[in-house]
Amino acid sequence: MTWYNSTMFKKIVIFGVGLIGGSVALSLKKQAHIPQVVGVGRSGQSLQEALKLGLIDVAETDVAHAMQDADLVLIAAPVAQTPAILRSIRPHLNAATIITDAGSTKSDVMAYAKAELGDKFDQFVGGHPIAGAEKSGPAAAMADLYIGKNVILTPDADTQSTAIDKVTALWQQCGAVVSRMSPQEHDNVFAAVSHLPHLLAFALVEDLAKRDNAELLFKFAASGFRDFTRIAGSHPEMWRDIALANKTALLGELKLYQQALSEMTALLEKADADGLQALFEHASRARNDWAKTKIQ
Amino acid sequence: MTWYNSTMFKKIVIFGVGLIGGSVALSLKKQAHIPQVVGVGRSGQSLQEALKLGLIDVAETDVAHAMQDADLVLIAAPVAQTPAILRSIRPHLNAATIITDAGSTKSDVMAYAKAELGDKFDQFVGGHPIAGAEKSGPAAAMADLYIGKNVILTPDADTQSTAIDKVTALWQQCGAVVSRMSPQEHDNVFAAVSHLPHLLAFALVEDLAKRDNAELLFKFAASGFRDFTRIAGSHPEMWRDIALANKTALLGELKLYQQALSEMTALLEKADADGLQALFEHASRARNDWAKTKIQ
C-alpha cells in the first residue's frame, strides 16, 4: 500500500455529525494539517450543535455546495439513509473524490453503493469503526474515541487501491487499527459477536418485563443483570435496521445459540454436575482470557 | 418487630471470611459497639489473610472453641459446605445462638438447616445479600459493600421472631435494605433475574469459543460483548452448584426464554420491521427505566 500523511485531505464532508462522524472530525483536529470539515445532516439542530461544539467548520444542507472540491465523503448517518445520501452526492463526485461509510452492516451498504454510484463505485470504500455508542449525538463526540479500536474496511475487487489506502490512513490518523474483510465475512462475524448478543439481551428484558411480577423481578435484579442487559438499552430503530440488514447471518446465529442452550438445558435436566462444570469452566476461561487481550 | 442496637451481639462467628463474610465484619467495625469477630475456615491461608487485614479478631480452625458464647453464626462459605458446617456447630449451639447464612439459593439451605439443626432449626434465619462478587477472597472485602443493597431473609413459619429481628438489624447496620420472602419465592425470582442470565452468558461464550474461527470472532468482539459476558467470567464451581440447587426453577426459566427467542426469531424470519421495533422499544424502555431506579 501507499502511505499518506495528514495533508492528503483538504476538505472532508461528513454526513451525520453525531458520535461517530463527530469523533472523526475531532480527531482530525489533532493532526498537523487540519482539513476543512463540512457537516451535512437532516436535522438543522444537530448541525448547529456540531458547529457550536467546533466539530465542523461549516454546516451545510445544500449537498451540491457541500460537495464542491471535496476530497473525502464520510457517511456516518443511520444506514437506512445511505442509498438516498449516495444518490444525492453522485452528481457532484469528481474523479478524485473518495467515499466511505461507518455503517454496522456491510453487505447491504456495498450493494447500495454499487447500485447508486455506477461508474464511481470503485471510489467507494465500505467501513465499520468498532466503537461503543452508548451515547449519541454531536455532544457525545470524543477526539480519542477510536484510539486502539478496530476499524474494518470491506473493499470490493474493483475498489481503487488509492481509495483503500487513503481511507486506511484516515482511520489510522484517528488512532484505529484497520483490518480488511469481505462484506459477507464482516456481517457473519458481527452477527455472532454483536448482533446476536443484542437480540439476546432485548429478549431477556422483554421476557421479564411482560410478566405480571415484573416489578418484583426488577426490584431484585442487580449488577449482573445490569451489565448483561446494558445493550438492551440500545437504539430500537437502529437495531431493527441492523437485524433486518443482516437477517440471514443473524437467523443462523440464533439457531446455533438455541442449540447451545438446549445442550446446556439437557445437562441441567440430567443434573450432570461434571458436564455443567466443564462447560462453565471452559466458557469462564475463554471469557477471562479474552478480557485480558482488550483495551477497555 | 423489635429493634436492636449494635450491642446485641458480643461475639460473632463467621464461616468463610471472603468478600461476603469479610465485608460484614468490616461494616460491623464501624458500629458504636464492635462485637468480637471470630473467623472459621477450611483454608488456614485465607484465615491468616483475614486476620492480617483486620477483618477478624480471632482465626479458628477448632469449631468447638470458636463457638463458645457465640451470639451469632454467619455461614458465608460455598453453599455446598453448609450441611457440614451446620453439623459441626449443632453440638455447640445454646438456646440464644442465632444462625444465618449468605447463600445464593434458599430452598436447599432451609432444607439443610431443618435436617441438621433439629430442635434448633427455629434459631436459623436463611439470608441472601444481593451484592456483586466479581472479586472474591478476604482482600476483596469492603466496609460499604452492603450500603443500599438488598438482603433477602427466608424465615420459616417456626423461626423465632427474635432471630429474624436480630438478623434484620445486623444487615441494616451494614446499610442494607432487608426484605422477606419464602425460600421458593426467592429461588424463583433469582432464577429469572440472576441464574438465567448467568447461564445465557456462559452459553454464548461457549457457543463462540468452540468454533474454528473463535480467534477471529473474539478479535472483533467489543464493549457490548464485554458487558454482556462479564458474568460468564464467574466462578464455575459456584455456578454449577447454584444451577443444580435451583434446577427446577431454572429449567422453567430456560424454557420461557427459548420461547421468547423463538418468537423474536419468527419476527425476523418474516422481516416484520414493526414487530421487531415494537419489541426492541418495549425492552429498551423497560431496561432504561429500570437502570434509573438503581444505585449502581
Automatic annotation (TrEMBL), chains A, B:
Q: Where is the Prephenate/arogenate dehydrogenase domain?
A: 10-296
**Classification via SUPFAM superfamilies:** 6-phosphogluconate dehydrogenase C-terminal domain-like, NAD(P)-binding Rossmann-fold domains
**Where does the record locate the signal sequence feature?**
none
Record-level Gene Ontology MF annotations: NAD+ binding; prephenate dehydrogenase (NAD+) activity; prephenate dehydrogenase (NADP+) activity
Q: Which Gene3D superfamilies does the record cross-reference, listed alphabetically?
A: 6-phosphogluconate dehydrogenase C-terminal like domain (1.10.3660.10), NAD(P)-binding Rossmann-like Domain (3.40.50.720)
The reactions it catalyses are: prephenate + NAD(+) = 3-(4-hydroxyphenyl)pyruvate + CO2 + NADH
**Keywords recorded for this protein, A-Z:** Amino-acid biosynthesis, Aromatic amino acid biosynthesis, NAD, Oxidoreductase, Tyrosine biosynthesis
Identify the enzyme class.
oxidoreductase
| InterPro entries attached to this UniProt entry | 6-PGluconate_DH-like_C_sf, NAD(P)-bd_dom_sf, PDH_C, PDH_N, Preph/Arog_dehydrog, Prephen_DH
One biological process term in Gene Ontology:
tyrosine biosynthetic process
Record-linked Pfam families: PDH_C, PDH_N
Q: In which pathway does it act?
A: Amino-acid biosynthesis; L-tyrosine biosynthesis; (4-hydroxyphenyl)pyruvate from prephenate (NAD(+) route): step 1/1
Enzyme Commission number(s) of this protein: 1.3.1.12
Q: Describe the family membership recorded for this protein in Swiss-Prot or TrEMBL.
A: Belongs to the prephenate/arogenate dehydrogenase family.
The protein's name is: prephenate dehydrogenase
Native species: Methylophilus methylotrophus (Bacterium W3A1)
